[in-house]
Design brief:
With 269 residues, this protein is α+β, with helices and mostly antiparallel strands. Helices cover 36% and strands 29% of the residues. The termini are far apart.
């Protein structure tokens, strides 16, 4: 207890002495070293606090600008995606219109009643080369109806429901169509067969026929199932089958089945 009292007494005495000293210096217009010391300690703290406040304000402004930039970026990204979608739709419409225009060019070769159709689905797996169109029995489409596009012969309707039909492609197994080779020296007649692959087999051509790579192959029109002179494809390779004494050739189809979107299908048989 005595030590505490003495401590308080000493502190009070020092405070009194410092107060008297301060008043004396101020009264005579002299600088107070104690005040200067306190000021020298407080000024840096004030500057630091001011800098921290200004830095916090700048940081807040930067964060606000960053949020606004992110909002603008999100808006531009959505707008860009919308424009891309519209562009893709426009391109699809243009491609469909071009395909329809090409298909209409075949009208002179199509004497019967034909109707336009859209391709709903395409299956190009080996042995399953088919596609689905949005025309069926209600539109007069029956099994056996040929299907064509502006590029040439597509295939034949295999099964028809009320509003849709399955079309077996020209390259599918068990498909066969009478064909004519448009060789510059002499046209030849044979049969184009589907093999479940990407290429057609041109078969039963006389061994003396002047076939060569690049010759165009069209429908011969035999049997009346397919109209004559519809493009089938172009010869890629020719060889002589000595076992059967016939010439054979691989034919690349004229139709790009992967990109097929619209076609024409014959009503009835």
């Amino acid at each position: 207890m005595r030590r505490r009292r003495w401590a308080w007494l000493v502190l009070a005495t020092l405070g009194l002495i410092l107060g008297v000293y301060h008043n004396h210096r101020v009264h005579h217009g002299e600088a107070n070293p104690l005040t200067a010391l306190i000021r020298s300690l407080l000024v840096p703290l004030q500057h630091g606090a001011r800098s921290a406040t200004e830095g916090a304000g700048q940081l807040f402004a930067t964060l606000t600008q960053a949020r606004e930039a992110l909002r603008e970026y999100d808006h531009l990204a959505l707008e860009n995606a919308r424009l891309k979608q519209e562009l893709e739709q426009l391109r699809a419409i243009q491609a469909e219109n071009e395909a329809l225009r090409q298909a209409l060019n075949l009208r002179p070769l199509l004497p019967s009643d034909w109707v336009g159709c859209r391709v709903v689905a395409t299956y190009l797996l080996s042995g399953q080369q088919t596609l689905v169109i949005d025309r069926g029995a209600r539109d007069g489409v029956l099994p056996g109806s040929p299907v064509v596009t502006g590029e040439g012969l597509v295939g034949v309707v295999e099964r028809a429901d009320s509003n849709s039909a399955i079309v077996r492609l020209l390259v599918a197994p068990r498909m066969a169509v009478s064909a004519k080779v448009l060789n510059a020296q002499k046209p030849s007649i044979g049969v184009c067969e589907g093999r479940g692959e990407s290429m057609l087999l041109l078969n039963f051509i006389p061994p003396e026929a002047p076939l060569q790579q690049g010759d165009r192959v069209v429908t011969a029109g035999l049997g009346g199932k397919y109209p004559p002179n519809l493009p089938i494809g172009v010869i890629e390779r020719v060889w002589l089958d000595r076992q059967y004494s016939v010439k054979k050739a691989l034919v690349r189809p004229a139709v790009d089945f992967e990109r097929l979107s619209v076609a024409l299908v014959k009503r009835g048989r």
